[in-house]
Amino acid sequence: MTEPWLDDEQQQTWRAWLDVNAQLFARISRELQAKSGLSLQDYDVLVALTDDQPGSVRMRDLGVKLQWEKSRLSKHLTRMAARGLVARVECHDDRRGAFVELTDEGLAAIRDAAPDHAALVKDVFFDGLSREQVRDLDKICATVLERLNPDDVCGP
Questions:
Q1: What is the chain's alpha carbon radius of gyration, rounded to the nearest angstrom?
Q2: Can you say whether residue 42 is alpha, beta or left, with left for phi > 0 and alpha for psi between -120 and 50 degrees?
Q3: For residue 85, what are the contacts with CB-CB under 8 A and spacing of at least 6?
Q4: Which terminus of the chain has fewer CB atoms gathered within 10 Å of its CB, N or C?
Q5: pLDDT tens track of the chain, all 156 residues?
Q6: pTM for the whole structure
Q7: Domain HTH marR-type spans what residues (predicted)?
Q8: Contact 39, 47 (CB under 8 A)
């Protein structure tokens, strides 16, 4: 049986990873809120609504994509709908289901926020890395995601 504890190098790397995540998301959240009035969670929802078939996604599919519980998603979408960023539309085929639709205001918000968001991510995350490090990090992320979701196909 393998040792259940992390060795010193693993422990250092794990703690660095946690620290990077905490600081990165705190910084992105602060700047996104300050520049666009969107929370990082708002931005995540809006990105998900503009990714594939822009504008409309089943609520359950959105929850799966964001890895959010149903109650969290419902409460957040209620707040976003009150601000005019999204709308809930009942599914005529399945009375239990609903769609989340991007409103014109939501589309304008994501279009306004995206350039500053991308510039910040590039500045604080990618500009300090070499192309080789970016490729290595992509491979590492794909490997971890594959272990987290063995039934999903990861990467390109």
A1: 18
A2: alpha
A3: 42, 45, 46, 102, 103, 105, 106, 109
A4: N
A5: 677 899 999 999 999 999 999 999 999 999 999 999 999 999 999 999 998 666 788 899 999 999 999 999 999 999 999 999 999 988 766 666 789 999 999 999 999 999 999 999 999 999 999 999 999 999 999 999 999 987 754 444
A6: 0.86
A7: 1-146
A8: no
Task: Assess if residue 18 is contained within a domain.
Answer: no
The token duo for 85 is 């960023």
Helices (H), the chain: 8-36, 40-51, 59-66, 70-82, 104-121, 131-148
Judged on CB neighbours under 10 Å (0-12, 13-18, 19+), 5 is exposed
Tokens in use for 56?
Answer: 């409309």
Tell me how many domains the chain contains: 1
